[in-house]
Design goal:
Helix content is 73%, strand content 3%. By secondary structure, it is mainly alpha-helical. It has one domain: Rhodopsin 7-helix transmembrane proteins (Rhopdopsin 7-helix transmembrane proteins). The protein starts with 8 loop residues before the first strand and ends in an 8-residue tail after the last helix. Keywords: Cell membrane, G-protein coupled receptor, Membrane, Olfaction, Receptor, Sensory transduction, Transducer, Transmembrane, Transmembrane helix.
């Protein structure tokens, strides 16, 4: 069979309807990207440097921070490169890599939120068994499992997209290579693959969301059985940050991949929120209402010379 995949590079057209705004967008997105990297690095340093935070909850928060550093790094450097007036061309291999790592890190994060919900469920519902249930071995298996299954899902979606022939148009009407825009460029009927991709992309987040919902339903029942008001407040406070992060993660997924009629401008806006703003907000969400993290952050910032010693 003759190979029709003659396209060797693609041209990223960028965010729709933003002509002549490149300089402003470059400054804005560069600021988001820098704050995302700095915030998540500080969270990592705060947790690693404090033995008090060496618990399963903060172990998974470390993994989330790593994902939040890598996730925007899949598409942001190239986007900033062409917004600064450089070439919009991306190689075929670069496009494949973007799509794979975007879905690999996104799926890993989705599985990770599910694991974090399970961790909170065990901590609040079965506190006496927590250290046994969430042992170092179990935490390591869960952490590796999130990446492993994320890799499987991303490999399937990438293979599904790039087994199609790309033999003609090579202009990607988006700011990075993603499944919906790449399928439009294929020189073949993509209706069956679009349905398979829709089911695959929708089924995995939906399954994770249902598991998270189950965990938090059990958590709420357990919290309502706590007699002291202070105990209930502490339990709700611990879970509120996680629930906020989950909502910020799932809303863009639903809006981008599960709508019947896509809108390029809306998709790009929501994708920017998902790629840059959510990873930037996660360190704030997890630190503002957490005394242990704030205390450790003060120590880290003091060692870096940002805070005086009395803080």
């Amino acid at each position: 069979m003759r190979n029709l995949s003659v396209v060797t590079e693609f041209i990223l057209l960028g965010i729709p309807h933003t002509e002549d705004l490149e300089s402003m967008l470059f400054v804005l997105f560069l600021g988001f990207y820098i704050f995302t990297l700095m915030g998540n690095l500080l969270i990592l340093l705060a947790i690693v440097s404090s033995t008090q935070l060496h618990t399963p909850m903060y172990f998974f928060l470390c993994q989330l921070s790593v994902c939040d550093i890598l996730f925007p790094s899949v598409s942001s450097p190239k986007m900033l490169f062409y917004l600064s007036g450089n070439s919009r061309v991306i190689s075929y291999a670069g496009c494949v890599s973007q799509l794979f790592f975007y879905h690999f890190l996104g799926c890993t994060e989705c599985f990770l939120y599910t694991v974090m919900a399970y961790d909170r469920f065990v901590a609040i519902s079965y506190p006496l068994r927590y250290t046994v249930t969430m042992s170092h071995r179990v935490c390591a298996i869960l952490a590796v499992g999130t990446s492993f299954f994320g890799c499987i899902q991303a490999t399937f979606l990438t293979a599904l997209t790039f087994q199609l022939p790309y033999c003609g148009p090579n202009e990607v009407d988006y700011f990075f290579c993603d499944i919906p825009v790449m399928l439009k460029l294929a020189c073949a009927d993509t209706s069956a693959l679009e349905m398979v991709g829709f089911i695959s992309v929708g089924l995995m987040p939906l399954s994770c969301f249902l598991l998270i919902l189950t965990s938090y339903s059990c958590i709420v029942c357990s919290i309502l059985r706590i007699r002291s008001a202070e105990g209930r407040h502490r339990a709700f406070s611990t879970c509120s940050a996680h629930l906020t992060a989950i909502l910020l993660f799932y809303m863009p997924v639903v809006l981008i991949y599960l709508r019947p009629t896509p809108s390029p401008w809306l998709d790009a806006t929501v994708q920017i929120l998902n790629n840059l703003v959510t990873p930037m907000l996660n360190p704030l969400i997890y630190s503002l209402r957490n005394k242990e993290v704030k205390s450790s952050l003060r120590k880290v910032l003091h060692h870096l010379g940002f805070f005086p010693e009395q803080l």
